[in-house]
Structure formats: C-alpha cells, structure tokens
Design goal:
Elements: E1 2-5, H1 17-25, H2 32-44, E2 48-55, E3 59-67, H3 73-85, H4 90-94, E4 102-108, H5 115-121, E5 127-137, E6 140-149, H6 156-184, H7 186-197, H8 203-213, H9 218-225, H10 229-243, H11 248-256
Antiparallel strand pairs: 1-4, 2-3, 2-6, 4-5, 5-6
C-alpha cells in the first residue's frame, strides 16, 4: 500500500475535457455516477467506481456505485462495505489523521488484512487493485475509489493522472452529494429558500408556500398540515402579500431566482 499527498500532484495530469464537462453538467442528477465511470475508464482504465461520504457518528452514505456490465455489482459491494467492512478499510484509519488531510492511496487486494473484507469486496467480484482519493473536511470525509480487475494493476502514470484530477473530482463529489440530498427533499429546500427570501414569514406560511410550489392543492395542504381549507387560504394570502406576489408562477420564479 502506498499513500501520497494530493498536493504533490498540483498542476500535473490532464482531465479529458469532454468527459469533465459532461460530469459537471450531471452534478445532482441520478446519472452522475455513470458519467463519472465513463471519465474514470478514459482517464485511468477503471472498471468499477464507488464514492462514500462519512458524517459524525459513523454515518456512511454511498454517493456513487457504478460498474460496467448488466449486473449492479458496484452497488452490491458498496452495501456490503458500508454494512460490514467500513472500519477495516485502511483509508478509514488514514483519514483519522490531521484535519484537512487529502491523500491518494494505492491498495492491492493483498494489502487488505481482514479476510472477509478481502473476500466480499475484492475476490467475490474479481477485483484486484484500487486507487482511492480521499479528504477530510472538519468532521466529515469523502473518498472516491477506482478499481481494476484482478491482475490488472494501475500504473504510475495512472496515479499521476488521478493526482492531477483529484482536487476537482472531490469538489464535484461534495457538490453532488449536497445537491442530490437537497433534491431528495425539495419541501425542505423550498422552506429554507423562503426563510432567506422573507424572514418575516411564519413557519406555517413557509410550509404552505413550499407545498404550493410542489403542486399540492389547497385541500391537500390542509390534510398534510392538519388545518382547515380556509386557514390554508389565509396563510397563502398573507405569505403572498409579504412576498409581493399574486400567483404560484410568481412564487416559483422567486424560489428559483
């Protein structure tokens, strides 16, 4: 196993421009992972790519899990990894070092000490070599893993190319994770935006407007919030007056501006 600092690769390695532009355009979208796999194949010949975010309290989230072929092997391996083997990964230990650490780790399957981890995440899916880029931000970490099939090692030029791309790839992963998480809960996103646009709105006024923006009818809002229809209409009227608008379309324009 070899551990290198990302900083030593600054200005080295070239990112395939077309693939990079495609990846940027897919941040926050479900097909971000497939675009990342396509770039990974082109840049370092990876067959399989995963990314994981860790938050305080050992909360691990799978950000990306993609592989070639018809079977979702990467997703299966990611689930095993999060459930059983996170703590056995040497990168987990390395990221518990100095705050703000940013590293590249070159790992062969033979470097994995724990037998069931090596079996579940390497041998069972015919993977043999991995390159990881990882960083810590305060109490959170992000890691991106590139795999090749057993017997197909990464070369020094692959490590250098990945080093030159690492900072940008990690930044895109952080943004993708944040954007995708927000998209999964648009009601909360709209609530936060309304609080910023009009701090004078009450909690109920924000809730009603957020649900209007999501296309929920006044009757549906009443059922969701357990309030009467006339009360919903009153909150809407007050909120629209505070926002200086008169329609759902105007509300959406304000929220998306």
């Amino acid at each position: 196993m070899h551990v290198l600092d990302i900083g030593q690769f600054a200005g080295r390695g070239a990112v395939p421009h077309g693939s990079l532009a495609d990846l940027i355009s897919r941040i926050g979208r479900p097909d971000f992972g497939k675009s990342l796999l396509a770039l990974s194949r082109l840049a370092v010949g990876a067959d399989h790519v995963t990314a994981f975010a860790e938050a305080p309290g050992d909360r691990i989230g799978t950000v990306v899990a993609e592989n070639g072929g018809p079977r979702p092997l990467a997703r299966t391996v990611a689930e095993r990894y999060v459930r059983h083997h996170w703590q056995s990964d040497p990168v987990t230990r390395l990221l518990r070092g100095p705050e703000g650490r940013r590293i590249i780790v070159d790992i062969d399957a033979d470097d994995v000490e724990k037998g069931d981890y090596r079996r579940d995440c390497y041998a069972a899916v015919s993977l043999g070599h991995r390159l990881s880029v990882a960083e810590s931000r305060g109490a959170r970490t992000m890691r991106l893993n590139f795999y090749r099939a057993r017997g197909e090692d990464f070369r020094p030029e692959d490590v250098e190319r990945l080093g030159g791309m690492a900072e940008m790839l990690l930044a895109m992963l952080w943004r993708h994770e944040e954007t995708a998480a927000a998209d999964e809960n648009p009601e909360a996103l709209f609530n936060a935006r309304l609080a910023s646009l009009a701090p004078g709105l009450s909690v109920r006024e924000r809730q009603v407007c957020a649900l209007i923006a999501l296309g929920v009818t006044s009757e549906g809002i009443g059922l969701r919030l357990d309030i009467g229809l006339n009360t919903v209409l009153t909150y809407r009227k007050r909120a629209y007056a505070r926002l200086g608008i008169s329609s759902q379309n105007e509300l959406m324009r304000r929220l998306m501006s």
